[in-house]
Amino acid sequence: MENKKKSLLIHIVTPFIVLLFCGAIVVVGLIKPYDKLKMYMNLAFMDELKSTPESKSSGLVIKSNDIATDYKGSTSDEGEIKRPEFGELYAVLNADALSTAVPVYWGSSPELLELGGCQATGSVVIGDKGNTVISAHVDTYFADLEKLKVGDTVTLSTLYGEFVYTVRENILFSRTNGSFVSPTEDDRLTLYTCKRDILGGTEQRVGVICDLTERKFYISEVNGNE
Question: Is the model's pTM score more than 0.85?
Fold first, then answer.
């Protein structure tokens, strides 16, 4: 009788143990895809990025640099790319179609978007291989973004070099579409902003995709000033 009770108990408990084990495997298996999806979604919705400091008490340290846009020294098509700190001004964007030069900050937050363009920290540093993603407010620094046309050039000046991009395509996409701002195999620059709407907020984003056509790394060191 005792053996029958033990056998019955084993038959009852075993399915629950197997179920728990399988559940644990599924959870572990989903962690990596979730992290990847989260990164892509963060790229797509820079106005909702969670890349700001973890709490208000930590504060946002904004680092300013003197970015040279008229460097006359020697350059090379190969050099060292320097990854900036969160909140650091590390580039200036210029294009003939834009009415003003656009300071570019590393990371995104409401404070930084008031100061210039913001680059998603999940995208590649300017001049590196892959997709560099920058956004700005349509009412300020990217007010003229829709004036950029295929064939126009966009220049990004940094502390370590100057990088020239050529507009390949004008794009229009919904805020839930992360395809344009996801990592890529080709070397490109993606600029985007909200589509202008006199009635207020909009779900549409407009922008351009640009091919990296020239890398000019500075041979003489250019120092930034805090």
Answer: no
Q: What is the pLDDT of residues 72-122, one digit of tens each?
A: 899 999 999 999 999 999 999 999 999 999 999 999 999 999 999 999 999
Q: How large is the greatest C-alpha to C-alpha distance in the chain, in angstroms? A: 94
Task: Give the number of other CB atoms < 10 A from CB of residue 66.
Answer: 11
**Tokens at residue 61, please?**
């340290």
* Euclidean distance between CA atoms 82 and 125, whole angstroms: 8
What Cα–Cα distance (Å) separates residue 178 from each residue in 79, 150, 195, 196?
A: 31, 22, 16, 20
- Domains of the chain as residue ranges with CATH: 46-218 (2.40.260.10)
**Closest CA relative to residue 86, chosen from 111, 55, 108, 54:** 108
**Residue 116 is encoded by which pair of tokens?**
């210039």
Compute the distance between CA of residue 198 and CA of residue 87 in angstroms, rounded to an integer: 31
